Amino acid sequence: MSSLELLRQAISPSNTPSPASSTPSTPRTKTHSLQADTPTKSNLSSFAPWDREQLVKRLSSFKSIVWSQLPEELCDLEWARRGWVERKDGKRGVECGLCRASVEVIWDWNQLRESRRKQTESESEEAVEDGIQNGAENATENGTETNGTAHTNTHEKATEKDDLYDKEAKTENESIDLLTRHYKPLLSDGHGPKCPWRTRSAELTVLRLPPQSLSMPSLTTRLATLNQVIDFLPPPERIESPKPLPEQLSDSLKEYDRRILQSGLTGWSGSMLGKKGILSCSSCQRRVGLWLFTTSLDERLDPFHLEEEPLDLIAEHKGYCPWTNAQVQTGMPAWQYMYSLLDPKSNKRPREEETDGKQSQLKRLREMLKSVKKDT
Q1: Least confident of 22-31, 156-165, 330-339
Q2: What is the residue-wise DSSP string for 37-76?
Q3: What DSSP assignment string belongs to 166-230?
């Protein structure tokens, strides 16, 4: 089954907007005054592209599985970086808390084309009606008559065919390409004309973890939450971590199960969802149901008899997560830094090798100088 078909199935029919009610190409904007709000913990309507907490809160609003299936250019991070949060009116899409604009996301090219056609026809009719009404009022005031030519031209311009929406997708790749070309400009253009998010976006490095999140106290806090889900973790041989734990651990860490240590060092916290355990990341908002890695095949009634996948503590993070993304963290990924706290000796060898390299260079330089002196 194709990824596009899987994505369509992920959207339940009850939540899928009908073409007649969908208006994805022209965002709706409510008129209101834009104020330079000061960022607060509960306010997502402020313009603060530099504020990490605001960006994380916007990311946390994207709860639908749809966002993880979209192309990288349209994933939840790209919308959140530009001030968008997931809509709360039951429709798939985003809204801006600052300018009140909204964009409906219809990830079906045929449905989108039909919606676009109906929307264009509706807007053209409204433009013609408004034009005729205004023209009649002007003619009455000026004592003249109008032949409606200007309004006809406006109508013609409004109904001009857009090459993009004339195209029919024949393959899944063509469909994804056309949908991306439609929605990508709306990341910015979807905002209201005066909205500052229209021309600004948060840098990826805003997600960089602060120093307090990369400390032993923060690790201890995560380990405490992971203790409650220890019974739901898969066995050690079914957990993949980026590197083995150090053989020598501090006394404060020896009491913890090594699976918990591996999870905490890679940025995961634990919590309960009803009677089941989950792992969650507060940076990329990823939630992982542990029952997916511990339930037997018989209990899952898997008709394909697929082998259970191991719990990969790195791969389960989203691609932009600073726990795994060195570029976002502006250096080494966060998990690597945490491992270095447990085993500082692991970082000595590169420094020693670097020092030895510099010493050998100085030695060669001295020998060269000696040979020059002898020649002179």
Answers
A1: 22-31
A2: PPPBTTB-SS--TT-HHHHHHHHHT--STHHHHS-GGGSH
A3: H----SHHHHHHHHHHHHTTHHHHTS-TT-GGGT----GGGGPPPGGGGSHHHHHHHHHHHGGGG
- pLDDT tens track for 268-283: 999 999 999 999 999 9
Angle between helix axes 109-142 and 149-158 (nearest 10 degrees) is 170
- pLDDT at 139 (0 to 100): 40
The answer to whether the beta carbons of residues 264 and 222 sit under 8 Å apart is yes
One-letter amino acid for residue 161 of the chain? K
Q: Which of 19, 188, 203 is nearest to 101 (CA)?
A: 188
Reduced to 3 states, what is the DSSP secondary structure of residue 255?
A: coil
pLDDT tens readout for residues 297-316: 454 455 554 456 899 999 99
Quote the CA–CA distance of 73 and 90 in Å, as a whole number: 23
Contact 334, 313 (CB under 8 A): no
Strands of 276-280's sheet, edge to edge?
269-273, 276-280, 287-289
Domain residue ranges of the chain, discontinuous segments joined by +? 3-110+162-201, 211-342, 352-376
| Whether the model pTM is above 0.70 | no
